[in-house]
Amino acid sequence: MTETAVIVGGGQAGAQAAVSLRQGGFTGRVVLIGDEPVLPYQRPPLSKTYLAGELAKERLFIKPAAFYDKINVERILGKTVSAIDSRQQVISLSSGQCLSYQHLILATGGRVRQLDCPGAGHPRVHYLRTLADVEAMQSEFTAGARMVVIGGGYVGLETAAVAVKHGLNVTLLVARPTPLGRVTSPEVGKFFEDVHRQAGVTLCCNTGVSAIEDDAGDGQVAAVVTDSGYRVLADVVVVGIGLLPNVELAESAGVACDDGITVDEYGRTSVGNIYAAGDCANHPNPIYGRRLRLESVQNAVDQGKTVAATICGKDKPYAQVPWFWSDQYDLKLQTAGINSGYDQALVRGDIASRSFAVFYLREGRLLAVDAINRPAEFVAARNILSKGLSVSAERLQDESIPAKALADQTDPLVTENTAPESAQLSAQSGVQKRSQSNAIKHDRVA
Amino acid sequence: MIKVTYIDHAGTAREIEVEEGVDLMDVAVDNLVPGIDGDCGGVAACATCHVHVDPAWQDKLPPMGEEEDAMLELADDRNENSRLACQLKASPELDGLILHTPIGQH
Ligand SMILES: Cc1cc2nc3c(=O)[nH]c(=O)nc-3n(C[C@H](O)[C@H](O)[C@H](O)COP(=O)(O)OP(=O)(O)OC[C@H]3O[C@@H](n4cnc5c(N)ncnc54)[C@H](O)[C@@H]3O)c2cc1C
Ligand code: FES
Predict the structure, then answer these.
(1) Judging by beta carbons within 10 Å of its beta carbon (0-12, 13-18, 19+), is residue A64 exposed, middle or buried?
(2) Min distance A210 CA to chain B CA atoms (Å)
(3) How far, in Å, is the centroid of ligand 1 from the Cα of A326?
(4) Exposed (0-12), middle (13-18) or buried (19+): which is A434, by Cβ within 10 Å?
(5) What is the pLDDT of residue A414?
(6) Which of A230, A229, A259, A256 is nearest to A243 (CA)?
(7) How many other β-carbons are positioned within 10 Å of the β-carbon of residue B76?
(8) Distance between alpha carbon B74 and the CA centroid of its chain, in Å?
(9) End-to-end Cα, chain B, rounded Å
(10) Taking each helix axis from N to C terminus, what angle separates A154-165 and A186-198, rounded to the nearest 10 degrees?
């Protein structure tokens, strides 16, 4: 009997797992099942070049159909996996079809957090996660239209940037004191706030939404009512308030979940022969010495590779430095690492020049960088973090040292950390590397 | 049409005819060229489209941007012929171009 690997979820992680299984020498059947009716595609352009109309739809797809044919990956698209029988090792589809597996990869991603206020179901209210979401708002995405964006995360900011450039009148409502409050520092959040204001976005911080009213009773115009009592009219509302990991299928099969599907460093869940990868997975990160659930292409790709390696018997523990990017206007933000728990934020360069990097440290050790139009600082930080180097705060900030040289190990001032690699960067001391209990919330996209 | 040849570490060559203006990472992905992943979709954010340009073509290439130069530092086997394929576009001057995919990316 040939072995079968079934992949649930046709997104970035699922597609990567399929490719990596073949690259790793898996010769059995590979079946990729996705509930979206299209081949796996890249989500980042949905709030960037694709929304702007600058990217052809074909370019969204991660690989062409011929690629999957060539490497012999079967696709079942537009169908939902509704149940897993982990004892019999069988999954069932909502269509009634069943499929046996020897290896089951859950790459189910997440779904948008819905606005929870009266009137949230107004026809002009949209979310932005899927290709279908973008297509649904396209007819309302026209110059002169009034757009209200709810949520100051990456998706909200990118959408606002594209919309204002496209000639829409954009109001951005941010619940926190600055945009990107959940993922970056007040310095960087404030910078993006100013950038959006200068570009013509009406931006309100500390502003929640209490209701969506139908302005004229005909479903054409939504009135977004803020908790401070304002009423903002909108031809189109885009909500970007975060993601909920799709864990229900796993939970119903008895797979342990805690802010995502709990996996070990090999991508294995608590149930034998079931693995998880991508936005849905919560993994132990050895660089930070604690569990993380990340929402990024990097994480989806690298975890897809990890689970495939495990299935191919080439165990390759996941130990990647998280990284992410966001494009807004002429700015490219590149983040490496996770800044939570930092006690020092060092700015390298001049914020006003729109080209600077903010390094985050705790107890003198680098945790993360936000690099704005500073790719060399981003690269240096990735190298420092992945190699466990120790670079002083003074050096990081010293612009007379080129960014490229910051992580140069031939320089006597760049040393390797002597303390044991893990737990060093952990927010709490004494965190167990594989502890299941200290999952932290970390939504990259909201 | 413009001819571009991708040669992998084992010496297997794939000659592809492309239209002017297309990006050479997209061409590689569409034509199943191994060793070029293009994880970031071509925005110079991942360095998984690293190629070594055949030295004969060096001076015909557009100059490298600051971002590309920085990102190439993430590639394992960077040398003086390294470029990111997503930052190169097919053009008549590049007709016949030869790109090598580095061994580390296979
Ligand atoms: C607008 C937007 C912009 C982004 N920008 C960036 C960026 O600039 N940089 C970056 O690094 N990241 C970005 N991200 C995040 C990145 O796209 C995600 O982290 C990545 O797509 C996660 O991949 P995944 O495969 O884990 O999940 P997904 O892409 O969500 O794929 C999971 C798939 O599984 C399907 N599925 C779920 N349950 C089932 C089931 N039971 N049966 C069948 N199918 C199922 C889902 O419908 C979905 O199609 C962005 C995301 C969005 C939405
Ligand atoms: S495709 Fe990511 S850098 Fe070229």
Answers:
(1) middle
(2) 37
(3) 15
(4) exposed
(5) 84
(6) A259
(7) 10
(8) 15
(9) 28
(10) 20
Average pLDDT over chain A reads: 92
Residue with tokens 């015909």: B60
Whole-complex ipTM: 0.91
To the nearest whole Å, the CA of A427 is away from the closest chain B CA by 28
Residues making up chain B, counted from first to last: 106
| Domain containing residue B6: CATH number | 3.10.20.30
- List chain B residues with CB under 8 Å of A403: 70
Do residues A276 and A11 make contact, with C-beta atoms less than 8 angstroms apart? no
What domains sit in chain A, N to C, each tagged with a CATH number?
Answer: 4-111+244-311 (3.50.50.60), 125-241 (3.50.50.60), 323-412 (3.30.390.30)
Average pLDDT over residues B75-95: 94
Q: What is the pLDDT of residue A430?
A: 32
Q: What are phi and psi of A159, to 5 degrees?
A: -65, -45
Domain of B83, in residue numbers: 2-105
> DSSP strand E in A29-150: where?
29-34, 73-77, 81-85, 90-93, 98-100, 103-106, 110-112, 125-127, 146-150
Interface touch A375/B44, C-beta < 8 Å: yes
What's the rounded Cα separation, in Å, for the pair A85 and A60? 34
Surface-to-core class of residue A122, CB atoms within 10 Å of its CB (0-12 exposed, 13-18 middle, 19+ buried): buried
Residue type, B44: A
